Amino acid sequence: MYKLKNFDQRSKGIIFAGCSFTWGQGLNYYSNLDTIIEPLPDQFVQKDLTYSHIEYIKSHRYPRLVANYFNSFELVQLQNGGSNQSTINYFETLLTNQNIHQSVDNFGLDTRPVNVSEISYIVFQITQWWRDEVLLPFNKVKIKFSFQDTMFNQNAKNTLQNYMKISNKSLEQVLYELKLSSITDVKTWLKKYEEQGVKVLILIWPNDYKDVIENDDWIIDRLVAIDYKEQKYTNIEDLMNHNKGLTINNDFEHFDICPQDHHPSIKCHQILADSIISRIKQDEQRI
Asked: Is residue 41 domain-resident?
């Protein structure tokens, strides 16, 4: 059996679980490749991305920056976007189904099962709660419901109104319930792997989880504080809203005419990476 000199435990992989913010949507604009096709504002057209675009994104998003710092490697979902639930489902499949066959995605990239012993950290970037699907109880029947559907589906609106009436809950109470459900699902999944020795850190994108996590010591203890200009932010949305240039569509440091994409700029990815690196170093020093 070979033995490596000066073996460092941190060369185990780091899972970066999250939506388009983690995947790096829009970072391909910084490549200045003449094959870039800009879609409609805030749209994502997968078929317009070449292999080179994807490789550029991977090289500049915060998961790679963190992994490189620790001489490690990153695991990120192959496909862009998703909900908290779809993120959990993706990595749960990789981590638990060791008999899964190698598969190939649209970019010719393969995905294989991952052994938990190969992972040191899971950094979970929480996305918008209203993308998740829940089962709302109606007497003895449970109905699938996603708040996102109420934006364009009358049946979903009717389901919400009926649930409020039957449960005698206000809209504010129901929204809190849905956010709590989303956070609870994430916590339950992360605790499972923390019990197996994987360390857990949490990033939050939306700022509307504040009422749910303000008294949640488990989340707070694992929350990555985002440091920028002597300020600490508890979520990415506040970071971007309070500092111009941290979204692609306002990054006039790099663009004369900015792409119409609201995702984190290349500088924002560096800020997120620096904050995660700082937190991991603090955690390691405590051991």
From this structure: yes
